[in-house]
Amino acid sequence: MKKIYKNIIICFAFLALLTSCEEELDLNNPTALSLEELLQTENGFDLLANGVLDAYQKVPANEFLLTELRSDNVRANSENGNFPDINAYIIDPSNGDVATYYSNNMATIKHANNIIDNRFLAPESYQYAVGEAYFMRALCHFNLVRAYQNIPYIDKVLDVATEEALDYPQLPESEVYEKIIEDFKTSIAYLNGVTQNRYRPSEAAAICLAAKAYLSQPNPNYTEAELLLASVVENNGSYNLDLLSTETDPSLSTGENNYNLVLDYGNIFGNEFVGSYSDADGTPDGTWTNNSGLEINEEVIFSIAYDYESSDNYVTSDSGLDDQIETDSESFSFAMTLQGPSNGVNLASLDFLEVMTPELQPVRFYASVNALNYGSFLSDPSVDVFNVKFPTDGEIGDNDWIVLRYADVLLLYAEAILAGGDSTTDARAIDAFNQVRARAGLDEIANLTRDMLLEERRVEFVYENQRLYDLIRFGEADTVLQAFSDANSLNYNPDLKYLPFPQREIDNLPDFYSQNSGY
């Protein structure tokens, strides 16, 4: 390991960008090579690319707590540690989840930069690894800018023997987005023509996330977003993408057709329904269980693979990464799974249960919230209603984490066409919106409003860490979250949309970070 000079002040997250190559590549492999040695081996860039995905496995682990738990969809049990405080918008800069999320994204950026810094050495057959590195670097910065707002953009592996970290100050949000979009676009060029693997970055994923970044920046570029999304939506067949949906059978009742759609919706997440349905109205009666054979489907564009191996290890062998990527208990946020009841953080808010009902959402209801809990809740409002999108039982399970799916692309396309307006009758936007709505067992609409689109995203993506960022992107966070906070005696105010920069970052780089207002 390189010598770290005592006179250098370096923050914890940047330290993740500076650690030794031997250490970063030691993926439970006793023969792990140094970066210099890997660059001289035939498959070195392949192993480096696997290391980037391995590093990202840590990122979703606490994302739910910092995103969905700070929305109006979810609440926390009042007796569970600091989770109720996060839910109530009471977050200290010393909060461990805040710091961990920051450093885990930065660590993945480091791995990506190892490839990008040496990209000119990559053999022709491993150019895809360079594209994946640009993609993952953009994705991690996209996570960070939405969570913390004005962040540094790290575009190289920093040298511990210099004070290079000080050359990477916080940038205005708009400049960060410019760099994110540039990286996604660079990855598109590298990934063009690469064989699709939904467990790895792809051209389609890069196109769509670049578009999402265009929509998320302070001054959205609807035109560029629309062009990018149209290239995927209008050619979805060539990308092997579509909604997972069973065509309605006129010979079946509405309830029976909806039951089939419930199964489709659960299958998106790799969930299999164990039970039956009522002949009278098609109401499902049973439970969900994870089935890894269902997790790769035509709706998933990019997901992070988790495969249960033992009580102590995860391995992404189902993603084709083999045993090189085996990590210690790197499950995704099991606060969202059936483990959640013991943590008490995946409870549906009373506000959300007003829109997520069997009557209003005959399909998504049964694959999103626990119907048995809900039945008890109707007679006793104090009953907790948990989610069923991630039916992992116990602290360690194997639900994959979906970063991007086709339903998101369709609704983003409608959003880009709406272009910040109040409504549209544009046939392309209506068609995209109605595809998602039909899969939910709902009637088509002829006029799409901004409010309808935001509400559709809420019920389609509940528990998928989208709601908070949707509210911010639509400019509705202060209105919606303030009202939710006031109604539930929480502590939201407009200064608390973004997370505080971790205190350990500030302590290790004095006068470097400007703390977000409100903290």
Automatic annotation (TrEMBL):
**Domain of life of the native organism:** Bacteria
Q: Where is the SusD-like N-terminal domain?
A: 39-215
> One GO term of the cellular component aspect?
cell outer membrane
PROSITE patterns annotated for this entry?
A: PROKAR_LIPOPROTEIN
Q: Does the keyword NAD apply?
A: no
Q: Which UniProt keywords apply?
A: Cell outer membrane, Membrane, Signal
Q: Which compartments is it annotated to reside in?
A: Cell outer membrane
A Pfam family in this protein?
Answer: SusD_RagB
Residue intervals of the RagB/SusD domain: 387-519
Sorted alphabetically, which Gene3D superfamilies does this protein's record hold?
A: 1.25.40.390
Q: Which family does it belong to?
A: Belongs to the SusD family.
Protein's name according to its UniProt entry: RagB/SusD family nutrient uptake outer membrane protein
Q: Which organism is it from?
A: Neotamlana laminarinivorans
